[in-house]
Amino acid sequence: MPKVTVINQKKDIDVPAGANLREELRKHGIEVYPGTARYVNCFGHGACGTCKIHVKQGMENLSPRSWMEKLNMRFHPLTMLAAIGHEDELRLSCQCTVRGDCSVEVQPEMNLSGDTFWQKPYPNK
Ligand code: FES
């Protein structure tokens, strides 16, 4: 069983291979949504961008970005802003299938400090 480490909540959870990351985090009592987004979200369809996580290790053990996730990262204003400076580690947890061990941070802060604000918001991948 793959192990998911939630760094900023100091929790390790075992999840079945092939499981949806958002569902497994919530099953284990880990809130992926900030504030009122826990009540108002797209229920895992990749449209709202509120279930963002930073993948610190094991990105290769998660499914590749879905077309909905790529669309969200390119056109949803809040996801685009959140990706600045975190282009390679930002994922939508509802669009991730767990295939092996990984370490993540839930509810990551947005970096609007300005030093990376004008960088290209999304990598060419
Ligand atoms: S739940 Fe809306 S994008 Fe993941």
What fraction of residues sit in β-strands? 15-25%
Inertia-based shape? globular
Number of domains: 1
Ions, cofactors and other ligands present here are: FE2/S2 (inorganic) cluster
Helical amount: 10-25%
Largest β-sheet summary: 5 strands, mixed
CATH homologous superfamily, by name? Answer: Beta-grasp domain
Q: Low-confidence runs (pLDDT<50, min 5 residues)?
A: none
> What is the CATH class?
Alpha Beta
Q: State mean pLDDT (0 to 100 scale).
A: 90
Would you mind describing this structure in some detail?
With 125 residues, the chain is an alpha+beta fold. α2 packs across α3 (77-83). Helices cover 18% and strands 18% of the residues. The model has no long low-confidence stretch (mean pLDDT 90). The chain has a five-stranded mixed β-sheet with strand order 2-1-5-3-4, with helices on one face. The protein is built from three helices and five strands. β1 (3-6) and β2 form a beta hairpin. It has one domain (3-102): Beta-grasp domain (Ubiquitin-like (UB roll), Roll). FE2/S2 (inorganic) cluster binds next to loops.
Features:
alpha+beta, Ubiquitin-like (UB roll), five-stranded mixed sheet, 125 residues, 3 helices, 5 strands
